[in-house]
Predict the 3D structure of the following.
Amino acid sequence: MHLAGAAEKYSIQFTKTNYEIYDSMAVDFAEKIFENYIKQNYKEINYEINNIEASGLIEKALVDICLNNNIEIISDTLQHLSHIIKINRFETKYYEIQSSKDSLHRKIEFDAILYGDFKGVRTFHLENSDIVSREDVPLLESRSATYVNSAVPPRKKTFYEKALEPAILVSAAILSVIILFTVRSN
């Protein structure tokens, strides 16, 4: 079907999925480590990352950056480690917004510690915070990477929902008793 002279505009807001945010934060973290603690001082690194579910994203990002910059990667815990990365937190949380029934505050936080040959301990904190629709949460989460998912707080019921629920249950019980006695008497 052709509509002459008709023009339609669509405005779609694209919200990043939890996995996309995790991946972006992992790349940011790897870039910070590379720029500040690898680039100038190492031709090869031997690193260790503690084993949490999301550590694979960080490891992939770090390896990609190093290989793209001709830095050899060794991951052998039996040899001297030049970089040790301890991820303390990489999680998603949803918080209810008091002024809105259908929106949630989504907060993804990352905390890590880096130590090694460079003397000292470095701490990192990355955070992504935004507002998402309660209805969109299933679209933002991942079935294959469940570590990016989080529990959604239950929607608070309005005063009328709280008052009507018991009334509906009592009415249904009374109706059931009436039907039972009507059927029995016939």
